[in-house]
Amino acid sequence: MHPSTEFKTLSVLIPVYNEARTLRRLIGAVLASPVPLQLELICVDDCSTDATPEILRELARADGRIKVVRHEVNKGKGAAIRTAISRMTGDIAIVQDADLEYDPAEFPIVLAPILEGKADAVFGSRFAGGGLGGQRKVLLFWHSVANKLLTLATNILNDINITDMETCYKAVRADILRQIPLKSNRFGIEPELTTRLAQWNVRLYEVPISYHGRTAAEGKKIGWKDAFSAAWCLIKFRFFDRRFTTHDGFYVLQSVRRARGFNRWMLAQFRPFIGKRVWEAGCGIGNFTELLLDRERLICVDNDPFYVEMIARRFGHMENVEAFEMDLSRPGAGKAVQPERPDTIISLNVLEHIERDQDVLHEFYEALTPGGHAVVLVPTNPKLYTECDRTLGHFRRYTREELTAKFHAAGFHVVSCNEFNRLGVYGWWLNGKLKRKDLSPTQMRLYELMLPLAKLMDKLKLGPGLSLIVVGQKPQGSAPEAHAAAVNEETPEIPLLARGEGLAAVPDR
Questions:
Q1: Which of 240, 260, 291 corresponds to the end of one domain?
Q2: Structural domain of residue 91, as residue ranges?
Q3: pTM
Q4: Distance between CA atoms of 121 and 118, rounded to whole angstroms?
Q5: What is the four-CA torsion angle of 216, 222, 224, 227, rounded to 10 degrees?
Q6: What's the number of domains the chain is made of?
Q7: Residue 402: burial class (beta carbons within 10 Å; 0-12, 13-18, 19+)
Q8: Does residue 22 sit in the same domain as residue 45?
Q9: 130, 200, 289, 290: which has the fewest Cβ within 10 Å?
Q10: Which residue in 449, 263, 262, 281 sits closest to 353, CA to CA?
Q11: What are phi and psi of 300, to 5 degrees?
């Protein structure tokens, strides 16, 4: 979603608890906000004991844009926001407290970076100095100190540099927010959401907003105990509860993203076969793409539109890079790329996800220029098939004989076939025994530390590999002659550089 025209509706998430004194005025201000989008208001009454329920029903009858949900038991602000998220239908979501501390007239300021295609999430900062008229009500010093200390801790733990973690105004693309498994019930929702967005590696912006804070006498509900709770949430969601997304593949790819040494090591396995015009078939979130940016032409495709958009926003400003959605097994996929005249196809941890893998190899053959190379990395050793393979959507783990036979059937001459990442076998086996369904960032960091040992084991060929790298060449000459030559060719094992993959055969892209 780059162009603002693709964003049609703003979902305003409004947790409400005993706000009868300000509710009508607040809802009126939200409905009057000059946003260039349709509005829907999801008001979650968290078991209020004053006139709030009656007022909400009255407002909803008067305006169809207002949706009301009631909790029969008081659960807290975080629980109310989670309920609102489950009911929203918009393209962007923003949290709005039911008091009058934040001015909905500033929605356009907060939303601008998202609508301009620059951001995935935007925080309205009370401490950046600005907003409409640059107004900020002077409040208690120690509250400000607590806010700034919590923000400092957030920045240290997540390696970001925001100025206001506890701000209410957090606008997030709805497609991202729906995939964040939030758990906090009370005010811990603020540090939790901030931590999750940092773990997602979203494009996070801040804009200055005005602030008209209220006192405890006026209904302020947060206290010093909540500051300690927020500090614990920062630690908990950074180090202990680290599952930041419901998207299994994205979680693994973000874990692998931290293993940059591992990716460079993998590239060294087949660097001699990489030409100037590269088709990366299955680019994922770009973990490997970033190592290929020096190519004359780089065509990145994936069947997941979320990944394609991520590549486009990371590298789309470069003239030599293009990203688009594609089903690799679709007939004609190779011809669609053929006009780009790729001399290299790189497909890492992709083929095992596709049931009709032979069709994909035929499309690769079709796309390549004569003499070009197809580099394919897949998980090997069927006995290692585990719950993690199932979670990642692997149809199979390959044997050397199976994959080289399929290369030959597609018309390729196999110039290299090597097992790879011997140390990773032990980690993958242990994951299987422990019934783990994915790889964590901690596991990948540990593997980075053991990279010298992994390289040594591959150099000495100590044990079987976790992955298999096959390089096939499209022969020169006429198609029938080339195909016959490739099918009759024996499969040599040409030693590559003594390097390997990382902890496991995952979508390392």
A1: 240
A2: 4-240
A3: 0.80
A4: 9
A5: -150
A6: 2
A7: middle
A8: yes
A9: 290
A10: 281
A11: -110, 125
Longest CA pairwise span in the chain (Å): 88
Top-ranked range on mean pLDDT: pick from 3-7, 111-115, 217-221, 253-257: 111-115
What is the spatial distance between Cα 230 and Cα 188, in angstroms, rounded to a whole number?
5
Question: How far is the C-alpha of 17 from the C-alpha of 29, rounded, in Å?
Answer: 18
> 297 - beta bridge partners?
277
Q: Burial, 222: exposed, middle or buried (Cβ in 10 Å; 0-12, 13-18, 19+)?
A: middle
Give me the pLDDT at residue 143, please: 77
Contact 65, 35 (CB under 8 A): no
Angle 425-429-430 from CA coordinates, rounded to 5°:
120
Please check whether residue 405 is in contact with residue 366, taking contact to mean a CB–CB distance below 8 angstroms. no
At 476, list the tokens. 């020169």
Q: Which amino acid is at 473?
A: Q
Determine if residue 117 is left, alpha or beta; phi over 0 gives left, psi from -120 to 50 gives alpha, anything else beta. Answer: left
Torsion of CA 112, 114, 120, 121, to 10 degrees: 30
Q: Do 173 and 121 share a structural domain?
A: yes
CB neighbour list of residue 353: distance below 8 Å, 6 or more residues apart: 282, 392, 393, 394, 395, 507
131: nearest Cα among 148, 111, 106: 106
- Please indicate, yes or no, whether residues 235 and 290 belong to a single structural domain of this protein: no
Print burial letters for 141-153: b (CB count within 10 Å at least 16), e (below 16). Answer: eebeebbeebbeb
Read off the tokens for 448.
């980075």
pLDDT tens, residue by residue, 169-205: 999 999 999 999 999 999 999 999 999 999 999 999 9
Per-residue tokens: 336: 């669609």
DSSP code at position 474: P
pLDDT per position as a tens digit, 34-89: 999 999 999 999 999 999 999 999 999 999 999 999 999 999 999 999 999 999 99
* Secondary structure of residue 57 in the 3-state scheme: helix
Q: Judge if 370 and 291 occupy the same domain.
A: yes
Q: How far is 385 from 295, CA to CA, in rounded Å? A: 35
Strands 170-173 vs 121-125: parallel, antiparallel or unpaired: antiparallel
| Sheet of strand 297-302: strand arrangement | 321-325, 297-302, 277-281, 344-348, 373-379, 467-473, 413-420
